[in-house]
Write a structure and sequence with these properties.
single chain, alpha/beta, 8-stranded parallel barrel, 8 strands, binds phosphoenolpyruvate
Length: about 250
């Protein structure tokens, strides 16, 4: 069984006043190596203080995107070496809000993931289908295309995590059924094993989409669900830690 990863995505939320949430989450993180890994991906403006708030605790801090280039004329962007230097361990790559809102293609996602890995960050690469694609029975075809495109050039399966996030479930309160999640996660696992051989079994596959303390007990035990990528519920320390507690109970 892979060590579970409970990852929060704060998106464009969080001011200094919210650092107290990070301190509360940090205080609730278990130092045991058997416990799930706990991660908060915060806005770039909070990264430095978030890293400080998590220092000494079993809480890691991550970014939410990065440039494919290490430096240069990319006004407003942030590079993977910048994230690594400030103390981030992970970075979310190809979140649907970046794919749709910023026109990020699979090729761009792959280049960003390679940059993250080169900077010794772990890339959390997001894939997921729209409601229309699911309705027309194209979910697996879409996921396969996104995986093939977004993993180009990544050689070490230990350097990335996949997050399956059906677009229609992100921030909507609609959750994929256990059968839908199980089918896609098994498909992703088979893809990874086909691509990387047995080490593909060690790649963690997260589910994301309206995960909360109430539905976590049904979702986190599903085969090949190695944790969650959590938006809204990661903004409340109590809710986020409740999901972490559910994951922790599964690993003992
Ligand atoms: C996300 O931001 O990746 C996400 C899954 O958000 P939410 O949990 O709010 O649906």
């Amino acid at each position: 069984m892979n060590r579970k990863l409970i990852a929060g995505n704060w998106k464009m939320n969080g001011l200094r006043a919210d650092l107290s949430i990070i301190r509360e989450v940090a205080a609730g993180a278990s130092p045991s190596l058997q416990a799930p890994e706990l991660l908060l991906c915060v806005p770039a403006t909070l990264l430095g203080e978030a890293v400080q708030a998590a220092t000494g605790a079993a809480l890691k801090i991550g970014g939410q995107t990065c440039q494919a280039a290490d430096k240069g004329a990319f006004t407003g962007d942030i590079s993977a070496p910048m994230l690594a230097e400030i103390g981030a361990h992970y970075v979310i790559i190809g979140h649907s809000e970046r794919r749709t809102g910023h026109g990020e293609t699979d090729e761009m996602v792959a280049a960003q993931a390679r940059a993250a890995v080169n900077a010794a960050l772990t890339a959390i690469i997001c894939v997921g289908e729209t409601l229309e694609q699911r309705a027309s029975a194209r979910t697996l075809e879409v996921i396969e295309g996104q995986l093939a495109g977004s993993l180009q050039g990544l050689k070490s399966p230990a350097s990335f995590v996949i997050a399956y996030e059906p677009l229609w479930a992100i921030g909507t309160g609609k959750v994929a059924t256990p059968a839908q999640i199980g089918e896609v996660h098994a498909f992703i696992r088979a893809f990874l094993v086909d691509r990387f051989g047995p080490p593909g079994r060690g790649v963690r596959i997260l589910y994301g989409g309206s995960l909360n303390p109430a539905n976590a007990p049904e979702i986190l035990p599903i085969q090949d669900v190695d944790g969650g990528l959590i938006g809204g519920a990661s903004l409340k320390a109590g809710d986020f830690l409740a999901i972490y507690a559910t994951a922790s109970a599964l690993t003992v």
